[in-house]
Amino acid sequence: MTTSSVPNLLDLTTSVYGYLALLVFLLGYVFVVLEEQLGLRKSKPVIVASGLIWVLVGIAYQQHGDPHTAGIQLRHYILDYAELFLFLLAAMTFVNLMEERRVFVALRTWLVSRGYTIRTIYWVTGALTFLISPVADNLSTALLMGAVVLAVGDHNYRFISVGCINVVVAANAGGAFSPFGDITTLMVWQKGVVQFVDFFQLLLPSLVNWIIPALLMSLTIERSQSSGEPRHQRMKKGGVTIVLLFLLTIALSVMVHSMLHLPPVLGMMTGLGVLKIYGYYLSFHDPIFREHGHITHHHAESTTKHSLLHGDHSGVIRRFDIFKVVERESWDTLMFFYGVVLCVGGLATLGYLTNLSVLLYEGWGINLANAVIGLLSALVDNIPIMFAVLSMDPGMTLNQWLLATLAVGTGGSLLSIGSAAGVALMGQAKGTYTFYSHLKWSWAILLGYIASLTCHFWLNGF
């Protein structure tokens, strides 16, 4: 990422513009917290808030005779966002295409059809979540394994509740030791404060973070046979090839970043281009099927002549089209990230992050500050927290940056609303996995959180 910054930023935290900007940010975040109750997507209020904040920043600097700094800083943050946006766009396209090719459904079918006991399924889903989330991101992995838990659990509500908690903790812990596991780790990697291979120093602490609450919760699960009925669904053509292309794209991103010192987004976008060419191949070889009297396909836009159709059809023949996969990206998340980056950047330009850095990292000490910030991520989304820490740049060592990454990445597991994985599974297992069912095990998750930080200190020092 771009690391250049404009010197001599003003401290406008006690000005009327500073107070107004802070108020706008807090009001915007209230709407984010109330997203489920209001049915208002979280990206909408933060995008509006970011625009208002930067208008206030621009006016404030103009009033102090500086008409240029606000614009330069805004472009700096937009560039930061652009790199992350394109990286996430490519990664999400790969994951969505694997989903469209039924890669995850085939894995779920295989697991459910094994005839394991529900305790075995509990451990298998947790372990696979921990291993897959560093590559496929924690949200997608949690939804996949959550579907397995629901399919196996059937009407065993205790197992479903504990199984979902296990998946959420494993997804967040697994995502913490890989740049591809979570947006926060991606931000840290692209900023350049932690190199790709250095993230694997968090493997054992992340494993401890998951395994301790998993062991405690497993004591409540009986060894009865699973009762879920498997739905046999096979992978569609090209599924394995897309998985291999994704792994090669990750390798390319790492190499261009570590060997050529180029932004890793270059590797991801190049891989996306190759994927699109492969999608062109699939568009000629993907089967067309008829449903309810119409020729349809999960994705499709290329058409054929009506003369080729038999019978009465008002539609057109549809084939695979990769741009339809791109349309299915989580645009709310991508736009939310835009709002967050600009909101936090605006507050930083007004001087708030400098003051907060002095309060936390100089007043409390770096290690304690990082541990507390991790706990805060259970209440406040971890994306703005990590971006704020990166923007503060409190002069931390590699081990201290790893501590911040571990804490922010796993602290959200304490509450169901503390991570995207938890929020998604609450919707998937509505009424069974709830905020309160998760809260009952927060004490065990906290023990895992403390033990993981202790493990990091033991392995890597203070």
TrEMBL record:
Residues 30-409 form the Citrate transporter-like domain. This is Sodium/proton antiporter, NhaD family. Pfam families: CitMHS (PF03600). Signal peptide: none annotated. It is found in: Membrane. Belongs to the NhaD Na(+)/H(+) (TC 2.A.62) antiporter family. Its main location: membrane. The chain crosses the membrane at residues 16-34, 46-64, 76-95, 199-219, 240-260, 266-284, 334-354, 366-389, 401-421, 441-459. It is a multi-pass membrane protein. InterPro entries: Cit_transptr-like_dom (IPR004680), NhaD-like (IPR045016). Keywords: Antiport, Ion transport, Membrane, Sodium, Sodium transport, Transmembrane, Transmembrane helix, Transport.
